[in-house]
Amino acid sequence: MLACNTTSTHPAIFLLMGIPGLEHLHIWISIPFCSAYTLALLGNNILLFIILADTALHEPMYCFLAMLAAIDLVLSSSTLPKMLAIFWFRDQEISFYACLVQMFFLHSFAIMESAVLLAMAFDRYVAICKPLHYTTILTGPLITKIGVAAVTRAVTLMTPLPFLLRRFHYCRGRVIAHSYCEHMAVVRLVCGDTRLNNIYGMAVAMFIVVLDLLFVTLSYVFILQTVFQLTSQEARYKAFGTCVSHLGAILAFYIPVVVSSVMHRVAREAAPHVHILLANFYLLFPPMVNPIIYGVKTKQIRERVLGLLLRKDAKG
Predict the structure, then answer these.
(1) What's the burial of 240, exposed, middle or buried (CB within 10 Å: 0-12/13-18/19+)?
(2) Is 5 a domain residue?
(3) 71: which of 2, 40, 56, 229 is 20 to 30 A away, CA to CA?
(4) Hey, how many other C-beta atoms are within 10 angstroms of the C-beta on 32?
């Protein structure tokens, strides 16, 4: 039977190490991190502005893209400002409750991103496999329900984490060997039976990654079946072309997640900074590249971005 502490003693403040073992390189490491964050802020804000301002883009695919941009803004902003403060000013202190809030936001919004990528796969499936029913299936109310479901799932799955951590006695110091408040990094400071936290964290990760990837894969199996049945090579190329941006976003999100997860379990003897850099990569890379992927590959977005820039140049 799992032990459950009835009282808890936690430090008022934790200390975030940044990148363990590479503290002397923090200033240099901050350059690509700051650049990635700047690109994420710029790109995702432009995407949101263009989609919200142009009623012609109020279609299912662009609604999901706007959701993705909003999630990426929160996901990157939940960790990067504090991380840069550590790198630049050695501001390592974070209060216990601020740490729990950061943990809740970064894990919740990562789960939301996975849900939106799954919804975008469904959008591509309907557009290619059931084009005549696209507007009747992907209605405004359904898109709203999908968005609400994505938020509800993430909040429901992540709400237990702060409460599970509050019940513990922290007797292994207050230094978190990480650049942000990642769940398992905080659990390592706990004295007591942490099996429930370990099992719950692993179960949620496996549930999200395996289930969402399974449905994304099934969507593309049906898409490929439909595309290969097309007689025209031009039609095949056009159908594949509508999926390229989404596939790029899928790869940008899931490859770092899977690699980081595998490294934690297979290469535990690897230097700590390797694990920390990988963990940062999957929080930084998707928010940075998603606007670039969709800006380059989506004609409507590309044209409106160019129009916005040219209009500014003309005014200047």
Answers:
(1) middle
(2) no
(3) 56
(4) 11
Which one of 186-190, 272-276, 310-314 scores highest in mean pLDDT?
A: 186-190
* Cβ(26)–Cβ(80) below 8 Å: no
More confident residue, 241 or 3: 241
Q: What does the DSSP 8-state code read for residue 188?
A: T
Those residues whose C-beta lies under 8 Å from the C-beta of residue 274, and which sit 6 or more positions away, are 263, 267
CA distance 295 to 312: 18
| One-letter identity of residue 114 | S
> How many folded domains does the chain comprise?
1
Is residue 86 domain-resident? yes
Q: Which of 16-25, 194-203, 229-238 has the lowest mean pLDDT?
A: 229-238
135 within a domain of the structure (yes/no): yes
Q: What is the pLDDT of residue 191?
A: 87
Structural domain harbouring 64: 13-315
What secondary structure does DSSP assign to 270-289, as a single string? S-HHHHHHHHHHHHHHHHHH
Check which CATH number belongs to the domain holding 276 and give it: 1.20.1070.10
Q: Residue 131 has what DSSP assignment?
A: G
Residue 215, C-beta contacts closer than 8 angstroms, at least 6 positions apart: 118, 121, 122
pLDDT of amino acid 9: 74
User: Do 219 and 202 meet the contact criterion of CB atoms below 8 Å apart?
Assistant: no
- Contact assessment for residue 220 and residue 121, using Cβ atoms and an 8 Å cutoff: yes
In degrees, rounded to 5, the angle at the alpha carbon of residue 211 between the alpha carbons of residues 207 and 215 is 170
- Mean pLDDT, the chain, rounded, equals 88
